[in-house]
Amino acid sequence: MKIFRLEEANAQLPALRPLLEAMVRLRRDLAIALLEAEVGSRMNPQRTGANPAAVGRTRARQLQTELLALADSIKAHGWVLKDLDLGLVDFPALRGGQLVNLCWKMDEPTISFWHGTSEGFAARKSLSKRRA
After folding, report:
1. DSSP annotation of 45
2. Which pLDDT score, from 0 to 100, does residue 125 have?
């Protein structure tokens, strides 16, 4: 497990943000493709053209592969994706000699919060002058 200093984690945000934004878009597109596949499977396939269900399933598989590749990239950097809906990512860090998570949300300009490893987003605490 990689351990980040606050300055180091903040320096990672310009690389992380576009990956997370791409994941949000891909997940939205995946949901649409799955819905289209479901609707297509309920329709009678037309005699001409592609079967809408098969097209939707193929597109969904492609999007899922792309989404998993981005998740693997995030993991490879040592970042911990906690909640894609919130755009929430944790960075393992040491604070006062204890292992904690620096907690960042995609709409925040910098990392300003932390929480214990057994806590979650609801237990976020503001970073004080004391650095992680």
Report:
1. P
2. 94
Give 93's strand partners. 100
Please list, in sequence order, all residues whose beta carbon lies within 8 angstroms of the beta carbon of residue 69, skipping any fewer than 6 positions away.
none
The per-residue pLDDT for 132 is 47
Q: Which two tokens stand for residue 14?
A: 């310009």
Tokens at residue 88, please?
A: 């929430």
Q: What is the pLDDT of residue 44?
A: 57
What value, to the nearest 5°, has the Cα angle with vertex 72 and ends 69 and 73? 90
Helix (DSSP H) and strand (DSSP E) numbers for the chain: 2, 5
For the stretch 32-41, contacts whose Cβ atoms lie closer than 8 Å and that sit 24 or more positions apart, written own/partner, are 33/57, 33/59, 33/60, 33/63, 34/60
Verdict on whether the full-model pTM lies above 0.90: no
**23 Cβ partners below 8 Å, 6+ apart?**
67, 70, 71, 74, 81, 84
Banded model confidence at residue 47, pLDDT cuts 50, 70, 90: very low
